Amino acid sequence: MKILLCIGSYKTRVSGPAVVAEQFFSINESHSEHECHILTNDVDKSTDKVHKIDINYPRKLGAFDFLICQFFYYRAIIVLQKQFNFDIIVFGNVQNSLLSRLLLLRSIKIIGIINDYLTANARLSMHVTRRRYWFFKYFVRFFEYVATHLVDMVIVCSDDLRQRIITAYGIKSEKIKTLPLGFDVQNIPFRKNDQPFKSPIKLLFIKSNLVSGGMDILTTALTILTEYSFILTVIGAPDFRKAEIEHLIEKYPDIHLRFLGFQSQNTVYQEMQNNDILCTPSRVESLGIANAEGLANGISVVSTREGGITEVLDYGKNGWLAEPENAKDLVDKLKECIEADPSLRAEKSQYGRLFVEQKFDYKQFNDLFLKTCSALLK
What we know:
The chain has helices at residues 16-25, 27-30, 65-84, 98-103, 130-150, 159-169, 210-213, 215-224, 242-249, 265-274, 289-297, 309-312, 327-339, 342-359, 362-377, and strands at residues 2-6, 35-40, 50-52, 88-91, 109-113, 153-156, 176-178, 201-206, 230-235, 255-261, 277-279, 300-304, 320-322. By secondary structure, it is an alpha/beta fold. Strands 3-2-1-4-5-6-7 form a 7-stranded parallel beta sheet, with helices on both faces. A 6-stranded parallel beta sheet has the order 10-9-8-11-12-13, sandwiched between helices. The model has no long low-confidence stretch (mean pLDDT 92).
């Protein structure tokens, strides 16, 4: 099979879509009988199987990027299709597939990925402003609804997200497949978390969107835990968000901020090895791949009972789960983790590593993805 993945994030490693691109491209090595290409704007230049697309439009139209991008993708796909004759085209964002599905031959199968339920199940707390909430709920949602019905298959990353999409859009259950994101678990060194925490406690937050990641909830919880000192390391948020976090903790000298912004995968893993607790108390999370990577590294994970996070943390067996948007419960769970006997943290740490080896290794995803594609072509 020849497969093309159209995706926005590839080189910038702070989000689930970038993980999709990494593991997708690894198919070329693990299954050499197939040929996989990537079309993305997140590279400096094209190579033989990674094709750069230039997407340029006025910044004031940024809210409509999901509509604008599909024109650029379709135009680039037409050129690449003449050269490579792809059997299947996968869109990292199902909304970008609309024009291609309408205009390309039906013999070319189109798969759309849905990464979250910010659109299908919009809640006001997920969005920065009320205007943005209404925009997603009644405008963006319409186009995602249409796209899910037009594409040949929809892929989601968790059973929770799958059920939400089926309920929200009324698509047939056999058309939507759960394929958890995978990564190279075996090459991640495991550090068993079996030592008492020292002061200050090193806390790691990884998320590009501070609102959906619950940064305000986390900082509120830390300001309540006055008996401890913290070093809060933040990865993934753009640089202009640093002042926002500083404002949340400016009156609390026992909370020190290390703002690292966008970072490479190696740096992310290094920080997971060097910190005590990974805590991103998400308001909304379809899977939470950073939590799975944290478990692979051995860091203690405290998160929220939200979306696919519960599946990653195996309903609390390999971490601590607080109720979403509940700073008080997050305080309790952080305190439980901090004050837990090191043997309990070690037990959860070891179980977490075993769990992700069984559930999130990229080779399993590649096998399932290729079987899904083969069935679709038949």
